[in-house]
Amino acid sequence: MSPANQICCYTLLCLLMSVIAILTVSPNVIAQEDESKNASARTGAISGRVVNENGQPVSHAAIFIGSPMDPTQGRSSSTDDNGDFQVNGLDALVYTVSASAPTYVSAPRNPEALPSYYRIGDSVMISLIKGGVITGTVTSSTGEPLVQAGVRAILIRDANGKPPSIGRFVVERSTDDRGVYRIYGLSTGTYIVAAGGRGNFYSNNAYDTDAPTYAPSSARDTATEVNVRAGEETTMDIRYRGEPGHTVSGAVNGPIAPNSSANITLAQIVNGVPLTSGFSVQAFNRKGFAFYGVADGEYDLIAQSVIGPREIIASESRRITVKGEDASGIELVVRELASIKGRLVLETTTAADCKNKRQPVLSETVLVARRSEKNAPKDQVAFPNSFAQGVPDKSGDFALRNLSPGQFRLNTRFFAKYWYLRSMVRENPGVPIPRTGLVNRQADVARNGINLKFGERISGVTITLAAGAASLRGTVKQPQGENLPAKLYLHLVPVEKESAEDLLRFFTTAVQADGTFAFNNLPPGRYWALARPAADTDPQSDAMLHYLEEGDTRLKIRRAAEAARTEVEFKPCQNIVDYQLPFKISSVKN
Q: Which fold has domain 471-582?
C-alpha cells in the first residue's frame, strides 16, 4: 500500500471513530414489546422511515447500519421518495442505525445517553431537523475578496448551553470567487467563526500558514459569538488580518507497528475546555509530524496508532502553550491502552408467572464501557478512547478494548422484557475491609466503576441478568385545569431500607408532554414513585443517576419520594398498565 493510501485508510478509521462517538449521544431506546419476535430467525431486515421536524419524509437520506459485534456487518442504504428504507440480509445480531441528509442534523440529545440498539425485524423512526446556516464574506484589509480561504464554524456551547465534552473535527467550507462562504447543516448552539489557518494535514492553500482570523476581525479572545437555531440563517462577515501563524511539530515514538502511521490530534483549549481539533499524520516512512497556522494559545496533543485488527495504542495528552513562536521538538510516546474482560451470567427463576418467557440472546446483548468525565482532572482533555462496546460470545465471555486511563462505568443493553440487571461485580480487587484486615472478595462495579491505567488488563468482572423483571406504564395526572411542569421526570426508588444503596434499583424516565411514561426491566420489589421537575444539571437517565458522585441527588430524590408516600409493588414478571400517578408538589431542604 502506498503512503498516500496508508494515510487515507487511517484517516477513514479516525472518521469512523468520530461517527461512533456521535452515535453514543443518541437516545437510549431498546425495543422490548414482542417477546416472541425474532426468537428463531437467523437473518432478516431492519426497516424504517426518516422524517423531518414537521413529520414530512426525508427522501434520499443516507442510512448506515452497524453492528458492535461484527464490523463486517455494516451496511449502507438510502431512503426512497417516501422516506422509507429497508436493509435485508442481516444476521441475528444487535445493530445501531443512523441517518444523514444534506442540510439536516439530528435533534439535540442527552450527551450522557447510550446508543439506540435494534435487531432484525425492527422498524425504526428517525427524526432529522433542518440545520442552521452561517454565511458571509471574507475580505482582505483592503476590502478585496479572499478566494478559496477555509472558513470554520466552531461550536462553543451546545443547545443546552454546555461546552462540548471533547474537541471536534470541524467541517470546513471554502470561499468562492466573491469571497463568500456558506456553512450549512449546523446543530443548534453557540459558535465562533474563523477563517484561515490549517488544522488538517491535507489542506493546501495560500492561507494555511496564517493564524486564524475570527469574526469580525480579531483573535480568539475577542471573537463574536453567533447563536445558531434550526433552519435559520445568520450572516457574519470577516475582515481578514493576515497574521502569520506558528508551527507545532514533533515526533511520535513507541511500539508502532511496521508500515503503520500515527494520527496526532491537536485540540485548542479555551478556559479549560477543548473547542476544536485538527489532526496530522506521522506517516510510516517518516519520523515526525507538524501542524501549521497555529495561533497563540493553549493546546493538547494526543497521538494514536493502530497495531492490530482490534488494538490501538495512544499517548498521554500533552499540554503545550504557543506564544509568539513555533513549538518544536515535542515527543509523544504511545503506549498500550486498557481493557476489561468478564462474563455475562443469566440467572433464571422458578416464579410461576415467568414460565416460558424469552430470555436474553447473547448475540443481541451489548456491554458498554464509558469513561466518567465528572471525575477527570479539569485540566485534562478527554481521550478519544473513552467509549467501548462489545457483545458476549456463546459462553457469555466479553472483552471491552482500547480504553483510555480514567474511571469507567459499565452498562448493558438487552432485548428481553422479563429480565433485569441484577448486579455488576469484580472478583478479588484486593480492597481491604475497614477494621478487619480482611480483603474484599468482590467489588460493586455498578456503584464504584472501574479505574483504569495505561496497559491495564482488568478481568474477573461478572454481570448478572436475572429473570423476573416487571414493567410499568401509566400517566402522571395534574389537577384539572393545570399543565404539567416542563422537564418532568418520574423516579422509582426502593422502599426497603436494605436496598437504599442498591444503585441498580434507582430508575428515572422522562414524562411525555401528554403525561405518559413507561418503565421496563424493573427488579421485583417495593418502590416509592415520585414525579419531579428536573433542573438541567439533574441526571436524566438511569445510567447518570447511578453515578457514585450523584449520591446527594439520590438522597434528595429518596427523601422527596418518602415524603410523597406513593408506593407501588412489583411481583416477578408483572406488567402494570394504565397506572395513574397524581402529581404532588413536594420539596426537600438541601
A: Immunoglobulin-like (2.60.40)
